[in-house]
Request: fold
Amino acid sequence: MTQGDTLDMTRRQMKSLRIREPRASDGPQIHRLIDSVGALDTNSLYCNLLQCSHFSATCALAELDGKIVGWMSGYNPPGQPDTLFVWQVCVHSAARGLGVGRRLITSVLERPDGNSMRHVECTITKSNSASWSLFQSVAETLDTDLKSQSHFLRDVHLDGQHESEIRVTIGPFAISPARAAKVA
Reply:
């Protein structure tokens, strides 16, 4: 989907939004979506292919009428099988503000493999208000707290070329009856 494409994302259409695990064949379309947003770091197409294959259990995409309108890449950090680290969330401009990002993240937690996860982590720059809103919404959905602390510092880790990244931790959260019913 290109930036010029328009989508009439009404609340009624959101019900037909399909969230699913990605496949390697989705890689090129995901790569184009990320590139079209402009505000996100564009990884290589090969990286997106690996995310869609090797890390598909911790990634999700949103489709509407066969077009990818949302993408979330994540993984379990080494030694932390109870944690979903959200690497990137990308939502097409026409689908923003409708909870697509939150649905992408919680869909991974609702999968059978996500049943053991009790934390969500990510890094966010101080100025990224959209991401702060998204992850606060995820914390509220999971009925838990959001904590933050400095992580990757501009002048220490990022060679002065990027705003400092703040580590965000959501959890621990218990499995809810609704989540338990979905993964049973």
Summary: Confidence is low (pLDDT under 50) at residues 180-184. Residues 129-141 form the longest helix (13 residues). The CA atoms of residues 140 and 168 lie 14 Å apart. The chain has six helices and seven strands.
